[in-house]
Amino acid sequence: MTSQHAILTVEAHRDLRINSARDGALGDGQMCCITVPTEFRAVQSAYPILFRLNDARDRYTALAMFGFENGENLFLDAGTWDAGYRPLAMDVQPFLIGGGPDDDAAKQVHIDLASPRIAADGTGDRIFDETGQPTPYLERVAEQLGALDEGYRASADFFEALQRYDLLEPFTLEVTLDDGSTNRLVGFHIINEDRLASLDGAAFAELNADQHLLPIYMAIASLAHIGDLVARRNRQLARG
């Protein structure tokens, strides 16, 4: 689907409403989304966090994983998202911040007018109230967008530290499900725990002082949820 981004204004969008149900047809059918280190503590409560290298830009991104294949979100269940926390990149849709993430200019809230979340039947969450003021819903989204933008901008130092200490290693997972089929995750990276443990005290102190140590351990802890993804996939298979 082609995006149609526009700066959000009360003049143009006073009557818009947003469908906040959770469904693949509304854009939630994704196997993963971008997450940022400042969010890792919340994300690791439910999702594995893996890293992927963008070869064209020689830059890593962190991803919260929802499934094993494109279009698979194992947390969707009858119009709800079955987890206590949704990553910011999913929760803010169909809103985004205009401008590049490395742009220091003042940011504005944009909306994707082509999003299936734009409610056409008069139902859903209002963006502006009858007087043209932002609703609590829009105020919450604006805060989330700010947190996501700030986290993304700060993530460059985090990934630079991971590369400086060579803490990322390739990761491939192959899982045999209850029906005998095989699911694979390929092309990702995880924290190399042995290499992390071998760092000297000065390196640990530096990582801690730069506030990188906590998200590193959160990413490691999140890998326990890979088993949860497998269990969710098997339950889905059992239901047919």
3D architecture notes:
The chain has 240 residues and is of the alpha+beta class. The chain has one domain (5-239). The chain has 8 helices and 12 strands. A 3-stranded antiparallel β-sheet has the order 1-9-8. A hairpin with a 5-residue loop joins strand 11 (168-176) and strand 12 (182-191). The mean pLDDT is 92.
Key features of this structure:
8 helices, three-stranded antiparallel β-sheet, SapC family protein, globular, SapC, 240 residues, alpha+beta
The low-pLDDT segments are none
Strand pairing plus helix content: what structural class? Answer: alpha+beta
Measured between the Cα atoms of the first and last residue, the distance is 29 Å
Q: Calculate Rg over CA atoms.
A: 20 Å
Number of strands: 12
Count of folded domains? 1
The SSE string, one letter per element, is EHEEHEEEEHEEEHEEHHHH
Largest sheet: 3 strands, antiparallel
The fraction of residues in strands falls at 15-25%
The number of helical segments is 8
Helix-strand layout with pairing:
Layout (H helix, E strand, L loop, with lengths): L4 E3 L2 H4 L3 E2 L13 E4 L4 H4 L5 E6 L4 E7 L10 E2 L2 E2 L6 H4 L3 E3 L11 E4 L12 E2 L9 H29 L3 E9 L5 E10 L1 H5 L3 H9 L3 H10 L3 H14 L1
Antiparallel strand pairs: 1-9, 2-10, 3-5, 4-5, 6-7, 8-9, 11-12
Pfam families: SapC
Protein name: SapC family protein
